[in-house]
Amino acid sequence: MESAQINLFLSLFYKELSFYLESAAKRQEKITPLEFAELVSIATKEVLDHHLTGDLDLHEYNSDDSYNYKDIAKLSIDSYTQSNEIYEHISDKHASILKNQPSELINLKFFNEKLSDIQSHLSNEVSRANNIISGLNSQVKSLEIASTLDPLTKTFNRYALLKHFDEILSKERSTNELFILMLDIDNFKSINDHFGHIAGDKILIFLSKLLKKALRDGDKVYRFGGEEFLILLNRTDIEGAQLIAERLLTLCRQNKPLYQNEQISVTISLGLTQLRDDDTMDSLIQRSDNALYRAKENGKDRYEMEL
Question: Of 85, 132, 186, 203, which one is least surrounded by beta carbons within 10 A?
Answer without folding.
Answer: 85
